[in-house]
């Protein structure tokens, strides 16, 4: 872009004096460059998201929405805006951030690109008003459509991860909580619930943030026990509610449709009620007596058998399950189990996780 002043341009030996850009023209060129860069950024981010919707999720509706948004954005990318591009003089091409160099997993990749798209659309909305009032309106509407797409996609991805999960760790207070959980994650664990009934909220918040970050680094789901407020505060993937906790309908209003809600059940009536109330998954147990549920009689393998025949949503057998009895629980019909002590008190959580998963995956393959 020419700066203020006069320029000599020689053509066939003839010197021509070129008038400088006016201040208004200079500003216009800057705005065009901003619009050009952000139109590219928005389309690129959407293409990254679209590829996962298409190949990762095989979801026609979300793939189509991504494509439609890209095409609408492209319709605003005029030759005039492209002509203002000046990549060689763009100082932003040299600026980067360590977080941009790596992605911990699909969810981190998707979230980074949603942020990229939303930020670009906001820039287009604001600077577009300087060029065309309709441009600001159009990109504002697109920005809200992307918010909806993010909600739907991330919720869908969470549900897909839930369906794939076979082993569920429910934590108990431990001096080595983070180390134990990470060891289990290294063994292939993909679903963790943070449970601590007695810690003060300051400690709970700190531990929940640390566990959430661990889960994201390993591509696992992170659930908070009981506390909807804590789940929202740390942006957890969902909450697990006991029979005495708030109704699922209230939790859903607070959490929204994209997060997971689980419910503990001890008998067929509670199971059917949880399903009717809209739980995403249920706990079935306690299968065996356990100090974690002190005073509760074991529901036994009969309830596991009932769940295998009647549950229409994912369910996890829970309560006293360990390496010595997991195959009995599997034989009763379980394909998913939740554990506490067998991992939290294990000397080698990674190996125990791998063994439990091997049994669950083996029977899953045999049942197909």
Automatic annotation (TrEMBL):
Cite the binding residues for Mg(2+).
Answer: 226, 245
- What residues bind 2-[(2R,5Z)-2-carboxy-4-methylthiazol-5(2H)-ylidene]ethyl phosphate, as annotated? 290-292, 320
List cellular component terms (GO).
cytoplasm
Q: Which UniProt keywords apply?
A: Magnesium, Metal-binding, Thiamine biosynthesis, Transferase
Q: Where is this region: Thiamine-phosphate synthase?
A: 146-368
Residues reported to bind 4-amino-2-methyl-5-(diphosphooxymethyl)pyrimidine = 193-197, 225, 264, 293
The reply on keyword Secreted is: no
As one GO molecular function, the record gives: thiamine-phosphate diphosphorylase activity
Residue ranges constituting the ThiD2 domain according to the UniProt record: 33-151
Q: Which GO terms describe its biological process?
A: thiamine biosynthetic process; thiamine diphosphate biosynthetic process
Q: Which domain of life is it from?
A: Bacteria
**Cofactor binding: number and manner:** Binds 1 Mg(2+) ion per subunit.
Segments for region (Unknown): 1-145
Q: Which reaction does it catalyse?
A: 2-(2-carboxy-4-methylthiazol-5-yl)ethyl phosphate + 4-amino-2-methyl-5-(diphosphooxymethyl)pyrimidine + 2 H(+) = thiamine phosphate + CO2 + diphosphate; 4-methyl-5-(2-phosphooxyethyl)-thiazole + 4-amino-2-methyl-5-(diphosphooxymethyl)pyrimidine + H(+) = thiamine phosphate + diphosphate; 2-[(2R,5Z)-2-carboxy-4-methylthiazol-5(2H)-ylidene]ethyl phosphate + 4-amino-2-methyl-5-(diphosphooxymethyl)pyrimidine + 2 H(+) = thiamine phosphate + CO2 + diphosphate
The family database entries (InterPro entries) matched by this protein are listed as: Aldolase_TIM, ThiamineP_synth_sf, ThiamineP_synth_TenI, ThiD2, TMP_synthase, TMP_synthase_cyanobac_bac
Q: Which CDD domains match?
A: TMP_TenI
Which pathway, metabolic or otherwise, does it act in? Answer: Cofactor biosynthesis; thiamine diphosphate biosynthesis; thiamine phosphate from 4-amino-2-methyl-5-diphosphomethylpyrimidine and 4-methyl-5-(2-phosphoethyl)-thiazole: step 1/1
Q: Which family does it belong to?
A: Belongs to the thiamine-phosphate synthase family.
What is its biological role?
Condenses 4-methyl-5-(beta-hydroxyethyl)thiazole monophosphate (THZ-P) and 2-methyl-4-amino-5-hydroxymethyl pyrimidine pyrophosphate (HMP-PP) to form thiamine monophosphate (TMP).
Fetch the HAMAP family from UniProt: TMP_synthase, TMP_synthase_cyanobact
Give the protein name, as stated in the record. Answer: Thiamine-phosphate synthase
Q: Report the source organism.
A: Dulcicalothrix desertica PCC 7102
Its gene name is thiE
């Amino acid at each position: 872009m020419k700066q203020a002043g006069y320029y000599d341009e020689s053509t066939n030996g003839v010197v021509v004096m070129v008038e400088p850009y006016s201040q208004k023209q200079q500003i216009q060129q800057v705005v065009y460059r901003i619009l050009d860069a952000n139109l590219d950024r928005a389309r690129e981010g959407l293409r990254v998201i679209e590829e996962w919707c298409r190949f990762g999720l095989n979801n026609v509706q979300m793939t189509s929405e991504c494509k439609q948004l890209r095409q609408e954005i492209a319709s605003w990318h005029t030759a005039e805006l492209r002509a203002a591009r000046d990549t060689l003089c763009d100082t932003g091409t040299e600026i980067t951030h360590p977080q941009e160099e790596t992605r911990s997993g699909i969810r981190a990749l998707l979230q980074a690109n949603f942020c990229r798209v939303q930020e670009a659309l906001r820039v287009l909305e604001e600077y577009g008003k300087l060029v065309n009032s309709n441009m600001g309106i159009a990109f504002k509407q697109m920005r809200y459509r992307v918010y909806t797409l993010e909600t739907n996609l991330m919720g869908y991805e969470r549900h897909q991860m839930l369906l794939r999960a076979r082993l569920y760790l429910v934590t108990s207070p431990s001096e080595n909580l983070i180390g134990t959980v990470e060891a289990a994650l290294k063994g292939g664990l993909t679903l963790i619930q943070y449970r601590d009934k007695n810690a003060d909220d300051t400690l709970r918040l700190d531990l929940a943030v640390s566990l959430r970050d661990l889960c994201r680094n390993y591509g696992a789901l992170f659930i908070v026990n009981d506390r909807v407020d804590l789940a929202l505060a740390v942006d957890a993937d969902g909450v697990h509610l006991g029979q005495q906790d708030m109704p699922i309908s209230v939790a859903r209003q607070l959490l929204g449709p994209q997060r997971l809600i689980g419910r503990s059940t001890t008998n067929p009536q509670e199971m059917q009620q949880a399903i009717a109330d809209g739980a995403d998954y249920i706990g079935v147990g306690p299968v065996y007596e356990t100090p974690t549920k002190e005073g509760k009689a074991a529901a036994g393998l009969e309830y596991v058998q009932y769940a295998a025949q009647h549950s229409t949503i994912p369910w996890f057998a829970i309560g006293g399950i360990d390496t010595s009895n997991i195959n009995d629980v599997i034989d009763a019909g379980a394909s998913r189990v939740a554990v506490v002590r067998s991992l939290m008190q294990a000397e080698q959580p990674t190996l125990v996780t791998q063994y439990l998963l091997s049994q669950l995956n083996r029977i899953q393959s045999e049942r197909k």
